[in-house]
Description:
- By secondary structure, this protein is of the alpha+beta class.
- The protein has 2 domains: 2-162, S-adenosyl-l-methionine hydroxide adenosyltransferase, N-terminal (Rossmann fold, 3-Layer(aba) Sandwich); 178-279, Bacterial fluorinating enzyme like (Elongation Factor Tu (Ef-tu), domain 3).
- Helix content is 18%, strand content 33%.
- The protein has 6 helices and 16 strands.
- It has helices at residues 36-47, 65-73, 116-120, 142-155, 203-210, 263-267; strands spanning 2-10, 13-21, 23-28, 52-57, 84-88, 99-104, 107-112, 126-129, 178-180, 183-191, 197-202, 215-220, 226-229, 244-248, 253-258, 274-279.
- Strands 9, 10, 11, 12, 13, 14, 15 and 16 form an 8-stranded antiparallel sheet that branches. A 6-stranded mixed sheet has the order 4-3-5-7-6-8, sandwiched between helices. It has a two-stranded antiparallel ribbon with strand order 1-2.
- α1 packs parallel to α4.
- 35% of the residues are buried.
Amino acid sequence: MCNCRKRLNFADSxxxxxxxMAIITLTSDWGYSDxxxxxxxxxxxxxxxxxxxxxxxxxxxxxxxxxxxFVLKNCFRDFxxxxxxxxxxxxxxxxxxxxxxxxxxxxxxxxADNGVFGQILTDFEEAVTIEVxxxxxxxxxxxxxxxxxxxxxxxxxxxxxxxxxxYKRLNGGLFCAVVRDNSxxxxxxxxxxxxxxxxxxxxxxxxxxxxxxxxxxLVKGNFYTLYTIDKISDSYLDVDKADLVAVFGSHGxxxxxxxxxxxxxxxxxxxxxxxxxxxxxxxxxxxxVSLF
Length: 292
């Protein structure tokens, strides 16, 4: 939690008032046209009146835990330690996907263990299954009726050991690119609001396998069009408008884009579309390097 101090001076004396406020983030696939976001926020404020609520995203594709994990993985460390992250994606509990609280890197995460944790974390300090009963008879809105209750307990200093039993193994994990002798086979794991393709090919893996060799990045678009790129740029502006560009983003993954245009929309490329990096000389010729 975030410690905020308000300092007031009175004549020759000084009084310091300290107030601890809970920071709670929300990540979901609810969108904004329904009541879900407002209902969860209202419940948080009813139980934690001084809470600071931050919307990370409510535009996650329905049930897409990989997208939710990618988004949260790339921003949660920007929040102060002690922040509580509620994830409302595919949240109905089952034997295979229990409700879990995890403490990792000084942060708390509340979600169903449906694979989303494996997209965010590689290790954790403590994890428990949630054994706190919810206060309603409906089990279809557990983010409001159970996760918020647990967040309030954490904000009030309740140890995880009083929330549930130890939980040792997380479901799922990162979908890593496949490395072969002269290629890396990856896929699109996220498409941002600019239509840029973010892949699961990391800079570390790319450089390790490249070994100074020439390369071509191959992307298949609609109508069987093959797009190729043979260089990594530092910026989107290193190429002309509407030209293809490949960069390693701040997230450390290979990103493919069109300068000032939406690659995914214009070329018909979707989540999970394959991305191939080929090393060495070959006869693959670019079909398209620009839309104009």
